[in-house]
């Protein structure tokens, strides 16, 4: 019975592949051409493929030796981008399958106690796939190990198109490079699931990766990208616009410049709403009805970073960090709203510093903005050096959740919390404007 069902699902999958809209109107016309020549790839084999490209090993001691040997590959790096041949978008196209329906033994790893799919595991798969897509863009004609170390710089955006992910239906990931700078690469991916006889889109994701030298110490050039046709040109221009938007957001960061006039009015209004009308004192603050102080909307966690969670470059796997941050953020939203939340979007995940094996990773989740049924959660991660007691920020994550019921309003008390509130509002407004 199992083998018959597997053949049926695979057949239905292959018959519908060319007719699907995989989450992007611009990609719809290009997907059939890109599919040609790509073998059937399982998500479970993506990291094995990456190890082959880099020369990494699953054995801890062998892995350390392999990383040391990569130093000799530095001579293969291009001295300028002009030395590298131009690539097309379809050169990096990859389709990967997660057969949760046809291979039930895979489900336990992905199953939640609500009998749905663990989204944190999906984040891990997306991160690995984005790296493989970028290696496909930079592959050389001659076989052998790649001299590049391609690592995740940031997750620009993940938009959920469907909140239900079935634990017993096959999943398909597709994606390719859509924009290239001199040393950075943007990869767009789409996830769909086979249900009721057809694949339907689940999410769209945009990752930005950077290329480094074999020792992961300095930037390395990547192949330029040449769009073919108006649809690919549109995707490339969107990548260019994404880059400019990130620069503008960084310039306007509340850590660098003061809030806008409108934002200052919001902060002042929140402050006035918490004053005690009896004393009218700056020191006397009262929580308005149906509200929660921001300082009471936190959840924290600790991870000891073991070798099992390493990536192919001997650092902690970025997907693991995303999974842990997401699960803490989800738990915080659950505790805050009192109802099981659904993810709406992930945006602006910045990888500021790699996490070394053996690190003590501190995670702090904060509900920083609410509106009606929506909860904006910020998760900050840092490593603690137990000898020097120094804390260094590694990542900042932003998640937007929706709750089945209206949630209490989160209320900042200090100026610093007010800045977190405004930053959360900015991320929420940006998410809602793209829905």
UniProtKB/TrEMBL annotation:
Residues 96-215, 295-407 form the HotDog ACOT-type domain. One of its GO terms (biological process) is acyl-CoA metabolic process. SUPFAM superfamilies: Thioesterase/thiol ester dehydrase-isomerase. PROSITE patterns: HOTDOG_ACOT (PS51770). GO terms for molecular function: carboxylic ester hydrolase activity; fatty acyl-CoA hydrolase activity. It is found in: Mitochondrion. InterPro entries: HOTDOG_ACOT, HotDog_dom_sf. One of its GO terms (cellular component) is mitochondrion. Keywords: Hydrolase, Mitochondrion, Repeat, Serine esterase, Transit peptide. Belongs to the acyl coenzyme A hydrolase family. This is HotDog ACOT-type domain-containing protein. It comes from Megalops atlanticus (Tarpon).
């Amino acid at each position: 019975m199992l083998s018959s069902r597997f053949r049926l699902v695979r057949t239905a999958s292959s018959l519908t592949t060319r007719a699907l809209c995989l989450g992007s109107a611009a990609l719809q016309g290009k997907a059939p051409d890109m599919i040609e020549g790509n073998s059937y790839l399982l998500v479970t084999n993506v990291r094995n493929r990456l190890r082959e490209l880099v020369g990494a090993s699953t054995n801890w001691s062998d892995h350390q030796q392999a990383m040391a040997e990569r130093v000799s590959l530095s001579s293969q790096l291009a001295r300028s981008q002009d030395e590298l041949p131009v690539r097309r978008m379809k050169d990096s196209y990859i389709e990967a399958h997660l057969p949760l329906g046809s291979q039930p033994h895979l489900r336990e790893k992905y199953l939640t106690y609500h009998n749905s799919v663990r989204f944190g595991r999906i984040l891990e798969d997306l991160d690995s796939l984005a790296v493989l897509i970028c290696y496909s863009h930079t592959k050389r004609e001659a076989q052998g190990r790649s001299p590049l170390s391609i690592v995740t710089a940031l997750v620009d955006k993940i938009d959920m198109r469907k909140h239900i992910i079935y634990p017993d239906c096959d999943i398909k990931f597709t994606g390719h490079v859509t924009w290239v700078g001199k040393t950075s690469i943007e990869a767009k991916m789409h996830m769909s699931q086979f249900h009721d006889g057809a694949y339907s889109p689940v999410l769209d994701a945009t990752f930005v990766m950077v290329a480094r030298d074999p020792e992961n110490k300095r930037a390395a050039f990547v192949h330029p990208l040449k769009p073919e046709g108006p649809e690919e040109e549109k995707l490339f221009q969107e990548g260019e616009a994404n880059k400019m938007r990130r620069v503008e957001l960084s310039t306007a960061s509340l850590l660098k410049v003061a809030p806008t006039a409108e934002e200052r009015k919001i902060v002042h209004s929140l402050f006035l709403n918490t004053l005690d009308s009896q004393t009218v004192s700056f020191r006397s603050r009262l929580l308005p009805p149906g509200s929660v102080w921001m300082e009471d909307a936190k959840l924290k966690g600790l991870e000891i970073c073991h070798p099992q969670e390493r990536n192919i470059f001997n650092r902690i796997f970025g997907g693991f960090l995303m999974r842990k941050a997401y699960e803490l953020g989800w738990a915080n939203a659950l505790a805050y709203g009192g109802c099981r939340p659904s993810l709406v979007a992930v945006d602006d995940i910045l990888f500021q510093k790699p996490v070394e094996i053996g690190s003590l990773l501190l995670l702090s989740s904060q509900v920083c903005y609410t509106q009606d049924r929506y909860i904006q959660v910020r998760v900050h991660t840092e490593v603690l050096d137990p000898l020097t007691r120094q804390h260094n920020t590694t990542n900042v994550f932003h998640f937007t959740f929706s709750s089945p019921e209206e949630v209490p309003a989160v209320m900042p008390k200090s100026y610093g919390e007010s800045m977190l509130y405004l930053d959360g509002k900015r991320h929420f407004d940006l998410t809602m404007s793209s829905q």
